[in-house]
Amino acid sequence: MPVFDRLFENFAMHVDLNAAEQTHIKSVLQHQKLERNKMLLEAGEICRNFYFIDKGCLRVFNRDKEGAEHNVLFCPENWWATDISSFADQQPAYYNIATLESTELFYFTHHALQQLYIDVPKMERFFRILAQNGFSLYQRRINSIISRSAEERYLKFQHLYAELENRIAQKHIASYLGITPVFLSMIRRRNA
Where is the Cyclic nucleotide-binding domain (predicted)? Predict the structure, then answer.
C-alpha cells in the first residue's frame, strides 16, 4: 500500500485540502515502481501522465540527430515531471523521460487530472502554480546556459540539486551542463 505523505505535503505547499478532497485525490491517483534506466516516455509518443516522484529520480531529455542525449531536467524526490506540451495538448512528445535509479511514482492520467480540476478546484490552482514555477525554472535555465560559464553552471547545479550529484552518473550531469564528462572532471577538481 503506497504512503501518500510526501505527495500531500507537496500539495500543502500551495493548497489546503480537506479530508474528503484528499480521499478523492487518492481514488484517482496511480502508483508505479520502476527499476533504474526504464523509459516512461519516448519522444514521439503522447504523454498521458503527470508524475510525482516519491522516491528515486527521473531525467527529462531529448536526443539530437546524431543520437546524443541532452538532459534538460532532473526530477528527484518531491518533484513533478511530464512533457507539459504533450500532456496538455495530447500531441506527440518532444522529450523522453527515464528513471535514473529505482523510482516510485504517483501519477495522474490526463483524463483523471482534467476531471480532478472540476471535482477539486483547488487542484487547478495547485497545478497552475506548479506550471508557473516550472516556467520560471526553465527561463532561469535558459539564461544560465547563454550567460554563465560552465563552472558557474556547475555551481548552480550543485545548489539546485544539492543531494543529487552523488546519485547520478557524471555523463548525465555533464549533458545537463552542456559540457563533456572530461571537462566536468576538471571543474570538479578545481572546486574540490
Answer: 13-73
For the beta carbon of residue 73, count every other beta carbon within 10 angstroms.
17
DSSP string across 116-172? HHHH-HHHHHHHHHHHHHHHHHHHHHHHHHHHS-HHHHHHHHHHHTTTTTTTS-HHH
Residue 54: pLDDT band with limits 50, 70, 90: very high
Residue 17, judged by CB atoms within 10 A of its CB (0-12, 13-18, 19+), counts as middle
Cell reading at 72: 534538460
Residue 83's beta-bridge partner residues? none
CA angle, 78 then 80 then 86, to 5°:
175
Residue 28's SS3 state is helix
Above 70 in pLDDT, residue 1? no
Distance between CA atoms of 4 and 22, rounded to whole angstroms? Answer: 10
Domain 5-147 has CATH 1.10.4030.10: no
Q: Of all residues in the chain, what percent carry a pLDDT higher than 90?
A: 83
Q: Which residue is listed with cell 532532473?
A: 74
Reported as a single tens digit per residue, the pLDDT across 75-116 is 999 999 999 999 999 999 999 999 999 999 999 999 999 999
